[in-house]
Amino acid sequence: MEIKKIIEKATNGDQVAFTSLLDMYWNEVYGFMLKRTENETDAEDITIETFSKAFDKIAHYNPEFQFNTWLIAIAKNVHIDMLRKKKISLFVDMNDEEDHQAYNVADTTPSAEDKLITEQNLSRLLEYIKELKPHYQEVIQLRYFQEMSYQEIAEQLDEPLSNVKVKLLRAKKLLAEIIQQR
User: Fold this and answer.
1) pLDDT averaged over the chain?
2) How far, in Å, CA of 14 to CA of 33, rounded?
3) CB under 8 Å to 45, separation ≥6 — which residues?
4) In the chain, which residues fall in CATH 1.10.10.10?
5) How far is CA 151 from the centre of its chain?
6) What totals of helices (H) and strands (E) does the chain contain, helices first?
7) Which residues form the RNA polymerase sigma-70 region domain (predicted)?
8) Cα-flanking dihedrals φ and ψ of residue 63, to 5°?
9) 109-181 belongs to which CATH class?
10) Does residue 133 have a pLDDT over 60?
11) 132 sits in which H/E element
C-alpha cells in the first residue's frame, strides 16, 4: 500500500495504519537515535516518544516532505529536550552559603514520612493502572515492575515486537490521561 494512503488512514484513526507506520519506520528512527545517543535505552525511549508525538500530530504532517524526514525531525527535537532536561538536573547554581549548607546535610536516607508518601504515591499509581484494560495493565507490569525489555515482553506474550511497542505506547498515553483527570 502506498505510504500516502497509510498516512491518510492513520490520520483518520486507523490503528492498523499506525502499526504499519511503526513497523515501516521504527528501525530507521531507532538506528538514527542510537547513533546519536550511543545508548540503547535512550534511543528506545526517544523513538517511542517520537512515534507518540508523530501519531498525536499526524493531522499536521505536510505530505510535501518525506514521512521519515518528519519523524527524524521530531526525534531530534525529542532528543534535544531530553538533553536539556538532563543538563538542568545536572547543574544547580549555588552560592557559597548554599554550598556550605549542602555539605552540612546530616542524613539523606528517606524518613518514615518520605517512605509513607512514596508508598501512597505507588498505591495511587497502581489504582490508576487498574483502570486500564487488562492487556495494557500487563505490558505496564512487565515493562516497569518486572523491568523486562521489549523483546522479552514480546516473547512472553508471544506477540510481534511492534505490537508490544504500540501497546506500551498506548498504555502510557492512557495512563497519563487518567492521571491528568484526577
Assistant:
1) 83
2) 27
3) 82
4) 109-181
5) 16
6) 9, 0
7) 24-87
8) -65, -5
9) mainly alpha
10) yes
11) none
User: Where are the domain boundaries for CATH 1.10.1740.10 in the chain?
Assistant: 3-90
3-90 has which CATH code? 1.10.1740.10
Is the separation of the CB atoms in 129 and 143 below 8 Å? no
Give the closest residue to 149 by CA, choosing from 130, 127, 168, 124.
168
Identify the burial level of 75 via C-beta atoms within 10 angstroms of its C-beta, where 0-12 means exposed, 13-18 middle and 19 or more buried: buried
Of 16, 123, 11, nearest in space to 67 by CA:
11
pLDDT at 109 over 70: no
- Please state the separation of Cα 168 from the chain's center in Å: 9
Contact 143, 170 (CB under 8 A): no
Q: What is the pLDDT of residue 162?
A: 80
pTM of the model: 0.54
DSSP 28-59: HHHHHHHHHH--HHHHHHHHHHHHHHHHHTGG
Cell numbers representing residue 125 in the block = 499509581
Q: How far apart are CA 11 and CA 60, in angstroms?
A: 9
> Is the separation of the CB atoms in 114 and 106 below 8 Å?
no
What is the per-residue pLDDT across 141-162, written as a single tens digit (0 to 9) for each? 898 888 888 899 999 999 888 8
Position 49 pLDDT exceeds 70: yes
